[in-house]
Specification:
five-stranded antiparallel β-sheet, 13% helix
């Protein structure tokens, strides 16, 4: 009986990495920005794409979670490459095979200070033979507002 348990535990330990899947190699970052009071600018949200990997544009979004006292605009994505969809070669999908820099417009309030912003960044990354489950990562940035509005 003990031998059967050992065999079962050994089999389970050997197969756990296959269940867990490969670790997500993509990384999300947001840059801090400095603006004069009342001025407009952008916060850059970057999704780092490793070599020989790619992201699907239609699976990406950047949503503002919190941005107290800041006026935020809609995220602007750069153009990607239109390529055949590996799952359906008769269709094409826009993809990024390099780091993606997304710009989010922001307008500073009239009062100087440091204003935190939190974004929820959604994406799905793939490599030649594997796609990870869609991911959502929260990332933070700070908008430093200098001076006072005139």
């Amino acid at each position: 009986m003990n031998r059967m348990w050992l065999l079962l535990l050994g089999l389970l330990a050997w197969s756990v990495p296959a269940w867990a899947g490969a670790k997500n190699p993509f990384r999300v970052e947001a840059s801090n920005t400095e603006l004069a009071a009342g001025a407009a600018g952008v916060i850059q949200v970057t999704v780092r794409v490793p070599a020989e990997h790619y992201l699907y544009r239609d699976m990406m979004a950047v949503d503002v979670v919190t941005a107290e006292n800041l006026t935020m605009g809609e995220a602007s994505f750069p153009p990607g490459h239109t390529k055949p969809d590996p799952a359906d070669p008769t269709a094409t999908r826009e993809q990024y095979d390099m780091d993606v820099v997304i710009e989010v417009p922001v307008t500073a309030p009239a009062k100087a200070g440091a204003y935190p912003v939190t974004f929820a960044v959604r994406y799905q990354g793939c490599k030649k033979s594997l796609c990870w489950m869609p991911q959502t990562e929260d990332v933070e940035a700070t908008v430093r507002v200098t001076g006072a509005a005139k």
